[in-house]
Hints:
- By secondary structure, the protein is α/β, with parallel strands linked by helices.
- Helices cover 49% and strands 13% of the residues.
- It is built from 17 helices and 8 strands.
- Helix 11 links the parallel strand 6 (231-234) and strand 7 (254-257).
- It is globular.
- Zinc ion is lined by residues 30, 32, 182, 210, 233, 291.
Amino acid sequence: MILNTHPAAKNISQQRLPELLKTMPKAELHIHIEGSLEPELIFALAKRNGVALAYADVEALRRAYAFTDLQSFLDIYYAGASVLLKEEDFYDMASAYFVKAAEDNVVHAELFFDPQTHTARGVAMQTVIDGLHRACVDAQKIHGISASLILCFLRHLSEEDALVCLEQALPFRDKLVGIGLDSGELGNPPEKFERVFARCAQLGLRLVAHAGEEGPPAYIWAALDVLKVERIDHGVQAIKDPALMQRLAEQRTALTVCPLSNLKLCVFPDLASHNLRELLDTGLMATINSDDPAYFGGYMNDNFVQTFAATGMHAGHAYSLARNSFEASFIDDAAKLKFVASLDQCFANFDTAGVN
Length: 356
Ligand SMILES: [Zn+2]
């Protein structure tokens, strides 16, 4: 057992685990903000903007959320994003997410967004970034949540498209903490984006990429060695490659794992078969995240509670996951220390040793 845990964890019973999981402070590092659009908000924004939807009502849209793989999800995801046109739409979408995040005791969030999905529809880059950034600023004021933005390139498009997207975003560089790579993984290896990632590194942007969700371990190697990312989004396929597992453990490269997403997109047949526990027990710096919570049936605490119930993980794993989420985040060391101290306090409060 290589878990980085807290002395109080051993005194916290499995019975009290759901309460601990919900209460403990945590960071979310893998949330596509367009994937937080609930069907109700999609219909409200469609009405506000006069956009016609291919679904009769909220229930018809929700019924379409029966996915067989990543692509079947992406088709509906991009249709849902079509209702986003104005700055206030992006603000409202992110603000709705922060309400859910606050309920789940998420104290820091790094939001992915897909500008190419919007600029291709004629929405200006400034409209997208201004709306999301204003919601991040207000999240601190309203909920005490610190938040930042990670611009993601769509990997099913060309690297030339990504370079154009980057140029459009440069005037708003100060509102971005980093860049990522998402959308359909298979057939779109990391090497395709070597130049644009190198350019972003020169600009001082933090680098992450989706790799090893459906794609092979070779995509994770390439994300590390060619794109030079600091975190791997998903990464669960690393388990097929012992040398890669060793590398990830030695470098303490964080994996932003999304269990309910993996379940809904059939990466694992059921949650009990998920390899998160094995990743943690092998010494990898794994975290739990919600990915596209409106589409995959759960926000942060749903992911925590359901995954722990299915895999039998204990309070030691809970501490490790929450601590990893802070250590892998793109905040400064003082903020990390403050968050870890609040996590330690939460575990100390749960410690019932000697109490009768
Ligand atoms: Zn994702």
